[in-house]
Amino acid sequence: MSFTRTGCKAYMRVKLVDGGIWRVSRFNDEHNHLMLLDSPSKKRGLRSQRCLTMEDKQTIRDLNDQNVGPSKIAQYLSILKGGRQNVLFRTKDVSNVIGAENKKYLGVDVDSTLLHFQKKKEVDSEFFYAVDADEDGFVRHIFWAEGRSRRAYLEFGDVVTFDTTYNTNKYSMPLAPFIGVNHHRQSIFFGMALLRSENTNNFVWLFETWLKAMYGKHPRVIITDQDPAMRNAIEIVFPDAVHRRCQWHVMRKAREKLGSLYGKLPTFAGELGSVINCSLTVSKFQDAWTTMLDKYELHDNRHLKNMFAKREKWAPAYFRGFFFVEMTTTQRSESMNALFKMWVTSRTSIYKFVCKIDNIIENIWQTEGDEDMRTMNEEPQLESKFPLELDAHRVYTRKAFSAFKELIKDSSLGVPKEIERDTLYEVTIKSNPYFKHWRPVTYLVKVDKEAGLFSCNCKGFEFDGLLCSHALIVMWMNGVEHIPAHYILNRWCRNANAGVKRPMNERSRDVGNTLALQMFRATTLKNQFNLLVDLASKDVQSFNKVEAKLRELVAEVQLVHNESSSQKPVCEATPMSTDDEVMKQATKVLHDPPISKCKGRKKRPERWKIAAEKAPIKGRMCRKKKMKERGRCPVMEVAAVSLMERILVEKKKILEKISVEKKMIVDRVTKKRVNNFSSIFESPEDDGDERWEDEHQGKGSGEGGGNKIERDRGDESQ
């Protein structure tokens, strides 16, 4: 705010007296202007009147942590204070408080983050984090996972989606979360990391660190995009895992490369999708692909050749026998990435980023708890009195049962037919109201009543963990009223997360020698020994007693271990490193990371555009070649080239003309300067007294008057 001086005589004079006391010696309160202090709505604009209390600043920080912007924070505080006129600060002051809070982490961003991790580990003993730094001490990678995420992975870690996202922090470090699916079909976290760059070595470090955090349990299935660095790292760290590329990315790339075919061949896109999604076996997929190429004469298409060469990494026919929780894409990762960007921006520090991610994860766990409560207290609505539906609603969660009810509805579309008595059935779906272009499809269901097996060639149970609609209609024909136990997966049951909620000291006493149980026991004992060490180190008597007891205890435990040495761990995996090994990098002097030059680095902000500017510009028609866009016409391209050549020739002529004129001006100025100085040093007697006086004294203000030397200097400067 700017003010105009009015020469006001109001003033106050103070002086320091004995005793260190300031005393007002003179005071004049007569003003010659309007006083803003008389108006409460105006005086808050004065710098001397603006102030923020400690309570206001803390409220601003708390609301900013919950992703509330400065303007909304100012509105909220104005409501608390009874109106905007009672607020003694501006929205800019709120932004300054937020900025000052962020500046506290300049240069100590990583140190603050590690301190935050250490505090979380004090509360959650299973919290895991690891830091990797380069030779100069600059942080390269940061990984962390909560104890509950580690326990959840043991129950629901059969399928993992992995993808990276950008513009989530001020260092442009890509965020790499590990996402899974719980028993409520909700997305959950298995840990996340910040990487400096996306190459094979960095992904190898991340996957190996994540594997250690997950107690050495390898994932069965992992879904990623088409990044070659991810593929190479997965082949190194997870050689036995089923790696599938995101089908959505594959089809998007196909639309980009085959866009012209989609326009020329109206039925090609639908048939391509039918070949990919409706082929039940590998042989049928290959035959349908060859038939499609023959029909449209596309054997020489480069992109279709590339798709078919990599078909084993993305085509559904190659993955129907594997459990994918009905996922074919990285959509869950993309959804989580979109959620992250609602909370963080490209200006967020790592410490603030971690704190906000903690809030997101806490909300996700709270959502799971709410769904557990609803499953326990609410009875789901039944669609029919089908015995299998009544049996399913007792064991499945609400979301899993909703998916099962949809399969019950779909079973009404099938027409079953017995091919071989009590062993082979054929189910034909002639029409489907959910699809506009539906072609009749026939499925085969093999039955073994004694073993309770109902196997369909669609592999629906193997893919999603729920019996398919074709098997359900055959079970109904054979009078089966209860779902066989081997067709009920524990991951879809109501108590599937019981192990996740159990405290670590309880799970440590479970019978078994798996690597996870060994780590639970090690952590439990370590916590007890830390307390014992603190107490025993205070005096010599306690130390001697504890040391003697430990010697006896070690001998007894060694004897028990030798007797049961024949028992081996069930899960063979990479041994879990100790806390000291994990924190070896963290104990070094670490520096904040530099700005990463990744694929998704920050873009320059574009100026705001109106709707008319955002609208696509229509290309003009070419009259000569009748092409849709004038820019693609070869005739117009030749004309544009010739026009550019003429422009360059004219530009060259103009530059040459300017150069000649410039040279002439310089010569003229130089010649005039020489004449001026020669006239100064000539004798007056040579040309007469009259000429000397005319030139150097002047006779007026006309062309002959004035100081000629000064005028010439002015011309020269011009």
UniProtKB/TrEMBL annotation:
Cellular component GO terms held in the UniProt record: nucleus
Entry keywords, A to Z: Metal-binding, Nucleus, Zinc, Zinc-finger
GO annotation terms (biological process): regulation of DNA-templated transcription
Coiled coil ranges: none
Pfam families registered for this protein in UniProt: FAR1, MULE, SWIM
Main location: nucleus
Biased composition, class Acidic residues, residue ranges: 683-692
InterPro entries named in the record: FAR1_DNA_bnd_dom (IPR004330), FHY3/FAR1 (IPR031052), MULE_transposase_dom (IPR018289), Znf_PMZ (IPR006564), Znf_SWIM (IPR007527)
Keyword Zinc listed: yes
Compartment(s): Nucleus
Protein name, per record: Protein FAR1-RELATED SEQUENCE
Species name: Rhynchospora breviuscula
